[in-house]
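Q: A reviewer asked whether we had any structural model of the full assembly, not just the individual parts. We don't, so I'm hoping you can provide one. Inputs are below.
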Amino acid sequence: MNKATAQMRPEESGRIAAFGIDLGGTKIAAGLIDTEGSVLASASVPTPATEGAEAVLDAVAGLVDALGAAPEAAGLRIRGLGMGAAGVIDAGNARVLSATDTILHWAGTDLSAGLLARTGLAVRAVNDVHAHGLGEAWCGAAAGKANALLLAVGTGIGGSHLLGGVPQTGAHHVGGHMGHFASPLATGVRCSCGRTGHLEAIAAGPAIHRNYLRLGGDPYVADTRELTALAHAGDLLAIQTLRTGGRAAGIAAGSLANILDPELIVFSGGMTGAGDLWWDAVREGFAAEAIDPLQQLELVPATLGNDAALIGAAGLFLAPQTSKD
Amino acid sequence: MNKATAQMRPEESGRIAAFGIDLGGTKIAAGLIDTEGSVLASASVPTPATEGAEAVLDAVAGLVDALGAAPEAAGLRIRGLGMGAAGVIDAGNARVLSATDTILHWAGTDLSAGLLARTGLAVRAVNDVHAHGLGEAWCGAAAGKANALLLAVGTGIGGSHLLGGVPQTGAHHVGGHMGHFASPLATGVRCSCGRTGHLEAIAAGPAIHRNYLRLGGDPYVADTRELTALAHAGDLLAIQTLRTGGRAAGIAAGSLANILDPELIVFSGGMTGAGDLWWDAVREGFAAEAIDPLQQLELVPATLGNDAALIGAAGLFLAPQTSKD
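A: Here is a predicted structure for the entire assembly that you could use as a starting point for your response.
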């Protein structure tokens, strides 16, 4: 094939895109993303978490195959496969350094080699919260900001500090563990990391529910969603525990602002859907904590919703700020 | 003068140096610093704080004149005047954005214009704690580290997060306010910023002394230095309050490590001279707070001592990582 012919190959002349994978303990979501951050096609499967890392990589490859065969993929020039994955990820080598037992034998998995062998694609990976942050910084609530903080408040709490749109993953790949941050409202309360007093222990969704039960709440209230509904119906203990979680998150956001001085703070995760009771408590906690020059800082919800992490993962190949690595 | 002659001028052919100024509320220290970070000559005067900003700039210019006339300055090629100054400093424009009343009318001072007019030198400035961090990252305890955290625990508490040796000053020039960070050991205690519960309110030197008095300590113990001596002599309340301050600083260091994931944490400021009682409490607080992958992180004392800020200030013109701005 001569050079002129090569230039005519459809995969060379077509639109550029990448696969983005959001890999969590219960679900693997995959998307085919273009250079604008639009999701051209998507699919998901339950994570075969108990079957181990090889089965999980097979499932990812299966999603990529399915999306690659979709009509939307025709003529696209695929740059690679970006992944946001649970656990501590060495972004330089796309390797899982450590992880909880949620996915069997997940720690140590070489995502790059395992997925290159299965798909033939170049692979990049970051921790899922950093993928989320990258998505919001690329084409979501923090687009165009040189210094932004994402705080994800859901089943757990994590964060991503983005400088020039690039998540700061730290010297040992554990940067952004914003949930493991001393909270004055969590003194003595056990955290998922085995220590006590951390933000996640009082402000994560399940922590709010546990706090409600600990303070004598109705044991038939099954989860934070029910608790939130109860709070909005006027139940005082539900209001109190929901507000404690929100206030703790707001205090943490204020402390983080005083340290990192971002242009804005983007909140994501399940708790951002808990309504004004939660948001008002977040804003009050922030106001009590942030120094004067930061009192007017914008606290905004994320805009990419459930697609943020897979868009951000694809952004490892497509976002102007990260794709040159 | 032709080009060849110009190249022979002594200021062109001589060793390169810069002036570094460490400007605090009570003292102005100035140094003539070479490209290795060595202090060739230094001088200091009390800050004429009650006489206002113009008098302070005159005093700085007087120090620069004196050092410029010193024998050590002969034949040096002076790049400029770098300053680490109290207050919130707009590093891009070398301007004091806001400050306490310690120096009269200090807020709003245009350091660049005021000192250029007086000395003819190019001027750069950062907040004094960032200057301190820059010094340690250039040629002190954090030399060669791509990601380092400096925590200064003295009369106040501040910090500097250095990426590639560059202090992260934030979007509103207030990054590094590590003292204004919720501490579980400071709940309800008033902070210098007017809020409550911040680290500085329990862990700064004067705060440790106030805590000692509040808990019923001997009112004839005049300051933290005396309290520290008493603690080392076995006084239990002095030990307790010294340790509370150290533990709070250690908890904060652990929280900050979980977020920023630095290669090491450098401690500076007066409290680092308080001996093993303080350092042991810092290490215990850190160990209680840092996540597993960071338990072995190095916590080290700063190595440049009182010269750190003026060396770092000169580094704004001389350090490889910052001088290209």
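A: Points you may want to mention in the reply: The CA atoms of residues 247 and 284 of chain B lie 7 Å apart. The two ends of chain B are 30 Å apart (CA to CA).
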